[in-house]
Design brief:
6 helices, four-stranded mixed sheet, two-stranded antiparallel ribbon
């Protein structure tokens, strides 16, 4: 099952995400080990993490690491919902680490997908991520329209965008004007670079 975010914009069939999935696989954007996120993720909570570890150990005999994700692109198998229908996790916990950790405890494989790769804006090296790959953002800012336009016009560009807001036929985002100019300039340079590669390939 694909869980659609209300503020997500999609430019490709969902089959591009699901066609290779098996019944025991899931996709969660940015799924990774929870522990390294302690340095910058504000939702890291030692007490709640320990509660979750104890629950997974008692319920599934799971002793592996806790996982975390950015709950943006989410595809979950029927097996997970069958469990969730009958079981209520007894403690408060964020979906971002509760669900991937339970999936791991259930031996459901969480696979990576290029289209589901998010932008962790608080991560130390985030400023080095190319702006055209900042198409899936959990918090902090919206996706700049120039990023959407550039990707959609690239054959291998990203086709999922979050968050995006539309009002009066205009795509809106919560990005400041200085960042907007930086992104526009970066995309302009990128287009020039691609055009130069095209000319070199054509002439030589």
């Amino acid at each position: 099952m694909f869980i659609l975010q209300w503020d997500m914009l999609i430019f490709s069939p969902l089959e591009t995400l699901t066609r290779t999935l098996t019944q025991n696989q899931a996709i969660l954007s940015g799924c990774r080990n929870l522990e390294p996120l302690k340095a910058f993720w504000p939702w890291y909570d030692t007490k709640k993490n320990q509660q979750l570890k104890s629950y997974l150990s008692d319920t599934f005999n799971y002793t592996g690491p806790l996982l975390a994700c950015l709950f943006i692109v989410v595809i979950l198998p029927r097996k997970f919902f069958a469990y969730y229908e009958k079981n209520n996790y007894p403690f408060d916990a964020f979906l971002e680490y509760k669900i991937p950790s339970i999936l791991a405890a259930m031996s459901i494989e969480i696979i990576e997908n290029e289209q589901a790769t998010p932008f962790w804006y608080a991560e130390r090296h985030a400023k080095f991520i190319p702006c055209q790959k900042r198409n899936l953002i959990a918090v902090g800012q919206g996706v700049e329209p120039a990023i959407i336009a550039w990707n959609v016009n690239q054959e291998n560009g990203r086709k999922l965008f979050h968050p995006v807001y539309i009002s009066n036929d205009k795509v809106l985002s919560y990005i400041d004007s200085s960042s907007k100019y930086k992104i526009t300039f970066s995309l302009l340079l990128l287009n020039v670079k691609l055009f130069c590669k095209y000319l070199i390939k054509k002439w030589f």
